[in-house]
UniProtKB/TrEMBL annotation:
Ranges for domain Tr-type G: 8-226
Domain of life: Eukaryota
Location of the protein in the cell: Cytoplasm
Similarity comment text for this entry: Belongs to the TRAFAC class translation factor GTPase superfamily. Classic translation factor GTPase family. IF-2 subfamily.
Organism: Homarus americanus
Name the UniProt record assigns to this protein: Eukaryotic translation initiation factor 5B
Function, as annotated: Plays a role in translation initiation. Ribosome-dependent GTPase that promotes the joining of the 60S ribosomal subunit to the pre-initiation complex to form the 80S initiation complex with the initiator methionine-tRNA in the P-site base paired to the start codon. Together with eIF1A (EIF1AX), actively orients the initiator methionine-tRNA in a conformation that allows 60S ribosomal subunit joining to form the 80S initiation complex. Is released after formation of the 80S initiation complex.
Subunit structure: Interacts through its C-terminal domain (CTD) with the CTD of eIF1A (EIF1AX) or with the CTD of EIF5 (mutually exclusive) through a common binding site. Interacts with eIF1A (EIF1AX) from the location of the start codon by the 43S complex until the formation of the 80S complex. Interacts with ANXA5 in a calcium and phospholipid-dependent manner.
Length: 345
């Protein structure tokens, strides 16, 4: 498989949870963007992707006690946003099938809801490691925010009423997770990270706990995914969206999980009228920390290694189908074989 032990790719992190529990807003806080406010009805309707380079992790986590960026041996994170609305089960399933690790977002004031449970079932089925973001902690009674501090510190500094409200809500959520067959604990009380899911209190509005959440995800990758994250030349690439972009014509947004793409590559993908065979005209990356599903500026590359969210411009993409794999033919005689593969998907 040509695994490269000292060359790890970015982990693919999927954000899952019930509608309006704060998935997109958490990513906005991390990116310093306002994607959520631009969504129709405040509802996410597509899978999103954001390339988070190491400096994006760094600037978010400096307040986290005991977290050392320099220990990280992967180049950043590729974060996938998913819709929580009940009608988008297919997109949650697709998102979770692409990821190495997940963040399950639970509104601390609402607890587990139907799509939280649906998300848990997806994660269990695929045995995906995950952390729970106990989001909207700023709504805890008389909560006092301090995003510049480690969340453990912020909790300690709360007055009695806030502490009691936080403890009560957290206990209820742990109980509800238990009922789903999961052991769970606040991350600093977690007796065994291999058998207990860690909860990280966050607020996407005030920023409380955001650093701890990102640090927790990185730690979990480091502890659990080292083998899985070894870069492999074997291409694993899924089409997310088909879109027309001014100056580039019809493009496809793809999640490149493994392998690499090069300008000029012959790609084969499913289309509504049969397999499409075309050459990559431009390989584009959204600017770091920008959501690929939002119009923006792109940097052009000759070659892009996994894992990243990539925009591809090429001819004949108008009839491309989202949600399926993309293949590359490295020799002319592979084209027919790969067309058959794509047809059978
Ligand atoms: P879908 O993608 O539609 O499933 O929703 P989502 O989970 O992405 O939630 P979204 O980011 O759209 O946030 C829903 C609402 O909750 C918005 O009005 C946010 O401003 C608000 N919100 C999100 N996070 C927080 C938080 O930490 N605290 C408070 N007070 N409000 C929040
Ligand atoms: Na929403
Ligand atoms: Mg959203």
């Amino acid at each position: 498989k040509n695994l490269q032990e000292d060359n790890l790719r970015a982990p693919v992190v999927c954000v899952l949870g019930h509608v309006d529990h704060g998935k997109t807003k958490i990513l906005d806080k991390l990116r310093r963007t306002n994607v959520q406010e631009g969504e129709v009805g405040g509802i996410t309707q597509q899978i999103g992707a954001t390339n988070v380079p190491a400096h994006g992790v760094q600037r978010q986590t400096h307040m986290v006690k005991g977290f050392d960026m320099s220990n990280l041996n992967f180049p950043g994170l590729l974060i996938i946003d998913t819709p929580g609305h009940e009608s988008f089960s297919n997109l949650r399933s697709r998102g979770s099938s692409l990821c190495d690790i997940a963040i399950l977002v639970v509104d601390i004031t609402q607890g587990l809801e139907p799509q939280t449970v649906e998300s848990i079932d997806l994660l269990k089925k695929r045995k995906t490691p995950f952390v729970v973001a106990l989001n909207k902690v700023d709504r805890v009674f008389e909560w006092e925010s301090n995003p510049a501090k480690d969340i453990r510190e912020v909790i300690k500094l709360q007055k009695e009423p806030a502490k009691n409200d936080f403890d009560r809500r957290t206990k209820e959520i742990i109980q509800a997770l238990n009922e789903q067959g999961l052991n769970a604990a606040l991350f600093w009380e977690n007796p065994n990270p291999r058998s207990y899911v860690s909860l990280v209190p966050t607020s996407a509005i005030s920023g409380d706990g955001m650093g701890n959440l990102i640090a927790m995800v990185c730690d979990l990758c480091q502890q659990r995914l080292n083998k899985r994250l070894m870069f492999s030349e074997e291409l694993q690439c899924t089409v997310l969206e088909v879109k027309t972009i001014q100056g580039h014509g019809t493009t496809i947004d793809v999640i490149l999980v493994n392998g690499r793409l090069r300008e000029g590559d012959t790609i084969i993908l499913a289309g509504t009228e049969g397999p499409i065979v075309t050459q990559i005209r431009s390989l584009l990356l959204p600017k770091p920390l920008k959501e690929i599903r939002v119009k923006g500026q792109y940097d052009e590359f000759k070659e892009i290694p996994a894992a990243q969210g990539v925009k591809i411009a090429a001819r004949d993409l108008e009839k491309a189908i989202a949600g399926l794999n993309l293949q590359v033919a490295y020799h002319d005689d592979e084209v027919d074989l790969l067309k058959d593969d794509v047809d059978r998907e």
